[in-house]
Task: structure prediction
Amino acid sequence: MFKSYKAGVIFNYLVHLGVLGLFFFAIPSEYHHGWYFHHGGDQETYYELGASLAALAPAANKFPLGFPLLLAIPIALFRPADWQALVPLFVIVHAFVLHGLAQLLLGAITFRMTRSRRIAWLAVLVWVLLPLIYYIGLAVVHSPALAAERASHLAWVQMLSDPPAAFLTLLVVWLWFKGKITAEDTESTEKEKIGQPGTARQEQEFSANSSPLPFPLRALWVSVVKNLLSSSRPTLILMFAAGALGGFLGMVRLSGLLAPAALALLMLYRRRWRETLMFGAGALVGFAPQLLYNAHFFGSPFTTGYQAFEATPDGAPVFNPAYLLDGAALVWRRAPLLVLAGVPLLVLGSLAALGWLWRRDHDGALVIGGWALSYLIFYGSYYYSWEGALTRLLIPAYPALAVMAVGFAAWVGEKITRRSRRPRYGKRPN
Result:
């Protein structure tokens, strides 16, 4: 469609500006006043903690430190009278700057997995159009007023933790892939050295026969040693940086640790011991301020502000897997046909999309699947998700879902193309 990928990138950003223009000037909402869109009240609590950090007198708060730390910077610089004064700044930074950078990251991640610039461009386009798609769908099945309130969050026009959480998730995944590519290049270089003087001797030193351990432990030892020797310094630096950003992402939003955890599990599965160690060390460094804060105010590094302050109105548990069934029952009562037709199609479509990605990049399919599925299960089990917050809470997972949507479309396109190329019955192919 475009002569260059750069033209597609510019087109997607212009589409994003068009979507923002619709929410600013065309889509009516009772919550929209100037730069202000629907928030929900969390911005006030974030601002209180941010102001205490700016004054170097942190106070106990249910939210983690990450986003208040970002708020503390403009609070210290500009001394605003209240949180409303900061809304225009954060709308500009989130919706116009971070979203544009996030589009570049999503495109780079998708291209790394699929080796297709068209697929990368389409994934970003689907994600950019998601606020408008969601608005139209909810306006049809429910009401335009509710649709405008919920869909505006997907355009990143709030002073909340959702936009930086989504951006940092993409940045962590991109850095991880960058480190993975560097490691693969290093391994290719090492393979080219096979046969050179000294190589055979080095391999013999760490052969399975050189250890007195039983065979299963001996094989594991060889795998560990070879991995430790094969990791290059740039790879380890990238993995440490990705882990540190992942730890800070956990401070922006505790659920932000889901995507880094999926990456760490994948590295363990691939027996990338040294990369896993550096990634984990970086994550610990990035998350350390939150652990110290928890220990100081709540008595334990592993007790969070949510545990200390948050409680449901009816005393129900904050997290319960049964809420997934309750949510399905709620949708069933309102639209039973949607459940009967939509759930099987959603499951089969997700499997087809991940299968399509798997054939192009095994690790990429596992990353995208783990990223999306972990968020869906986590927030499907969260009490307040079913009190109207699910759309906003899933914002960091929408890029992965956009990649899956385009992967499913590509799978369907391949099936149609193959069928159209088959010779018709009774006719010989030319």
About this structure: Residues 198-211 have pLDDT under 50 and may be disordered. The CA atoms of residues 57 and 253 lie 21 Å apart.
